[in-house]
Amino acid sequence: MRYEPQYAKGEILVAFSKSIDKDFARKFGEVLGYELSDDEYRHGYNIFIYKTSPGKEREAIEKFKSHSDFVMWAERRDIKLENRWNLLERVEKMINNLIDNAEIPDKEYESKIEELCEILRKSL
Question: In the predicted model, is pLDDT for residue 78 greater than 90?
């Protein structure tokens, strides 16, 4: 089965081609008629979340894309993908911690491996 995104209603992502601060991103969005979200996007650089009217995401994307001198890309926000990345980051931290402490007693090691497996099983 192919991947089916779960898009956030009333939110888009905009990636800027140059390094900008949050104040510039806020003002840029306001000029186009969109509000910058207070949420930080943690999966890339110079990517900001903008609020749109639900159902008007595609229209907002096109407005941002028309400013290609500043905007590298604009797309709908995929919450499902972000959740998968967050889970994988969590598991990666757990694995790195286990690598750093691989000489722990066997029962503790097995318990931590089982905890990782359970977390991954629950995510399916």
Answer: yes
The secondary structure of 3-52 as a DSSP string is ----EEEEEEEEEESS---HHHHHHHHHHHT-EEPSSPP-SSSSEEEEE-
Report which of 66, 94, 83 is spatially closest to residue 124, judged by C-alpha positions.
83
Q: Which of 111, 112, 110 is nearest to 93 (CA)?
A: 112
Angle between helices 79-100 and 106-122 (to 10 degrees): 170
Rg (CA), the chain: 19
The answer to whether 76 touches 98, Cβ cutoff 8 Å, is: no
User: For residue 48, which amino acid is it?
Assistant: F
The domains of the chain are located at 7-77, 82-122
Q: pLDDT tens digit string along 17-74? A: 999 999 999 999 999 999 999 999 999 999 999 999 999 999 999 999 999 999 999 9
Fold exhibited by the domain 7-77: Alpha-Beta Plaits (3.30.70)
Give the global pTM. Answer: 0.86
